[in-house]
């Protein structure tokens, strides 16, 4: 049996191979065009898509993003003014008493783990980065409780460095819309990045998050009230009846 490489080489040297390559290119071009049209429509639908966490500098956004796990941005925005009033910078947070921090952030849930992480972040920033939040992914992900997703949020919104944020909504919605066939964060990030211009990556992520919160829900997607229904390969995984779907629509 010919190896895959050998077969590819043979195809490439024949008319059939050229036609197939042309067809692949046409498919790829069509996919990119559809993806761009989907983004255009979603951006029109959610013109205010943005990071909803309140922050004044990279340090505050980093801490707020860690606190936002498994809770709402609104809930985080209620506790961060008190937190940053007590601990305005990395050195202060790194020297904080864990029980006192836990008490302040308790409403955000998982408060023991989160308090341990953000006090650890304060210490690591102070010890390793002169109290300044770094910009590089590997430096950010060296901090306690900071994964690639959090790093991309901070880079995109505090430093203006474009990036695809693979949070739960982006992973789910990207796959449903056909931007990727994977749900693995690194693969999704690579596939989605390849479809769109770098300058749009952060806005695209925010827009997909808004769409995931408002309509393309994990459990019951509001397909019948979705502005990109006509372009979505997953149309029909949720109710398609307009009235029923409309009742599922939430504020993002
Ligand atoms: S049609 Fe349904 S699955 Fe597709 S993006 Fe809209 S809500 Fe999500």
From TrEMBL:
InterPro entries: DNA_glycosylase, HhH-GPD_domain, HhH_base_excis_C, HhH_motif, Nth. Residues 1-14 have a biased composition (Polar residues). Belongs to the Nth/MutY family. DNA repair enzyme that has both DNA N-glycosylase activity and AP-lyase activity. The DNA N-glycosylase activity releases various damaged pyrimidines from DNA by cleaving the N-glycosidic bond, leaving an AP (apurinic/apyrimidinic) site. The AP-lyase activity cleaves the phosphodiester bond 3' to the AP site by a beta-elimination, leaving a 3'-terminal unsaturated sugar and a product with a terminal 5'-phosphate. GO terms for biological process: base-excision repair, AP site formation. Its EC number is 4.2.99.18. Keywords: 4Fe-4S, DNA damage, DNA repair, DNA-binding, Endonuclease, Glycosidase, Hydrolase, Iron, Iron-sulfur, Lyase, Metal-binding, Nuclease. The gene is nth. Coiled coil: none annotated. This is Endonuclease III. Binds 1 [4Fe-4S] cluster. It catalyses: 2'-deoxyribonucleotide-(2'-deoxyribose 5'-phosphate)-2'-deoxyribonucleotide-DNA = a 3'-end 2'-deoxyribonucleotide-(2,3-dehydro-2,3-deoxyribose 5'-phosphate)-DNA + a 5'-end 5'-phospho-2'-deoxyribonucleoside-DNA + H(+). Residues 1-23 are annotated as: Disordered. It is an enzyme of class 4 (lyase). Gene3D superfamilies: Helix-hairpin-Helix base-excision DNA repair enzymes (C-terminal) (1.10.1670.10), Hypothetical protein, domain 2 (1.10.340.30). One of its GO terms (molecular function) is metal ion binding.
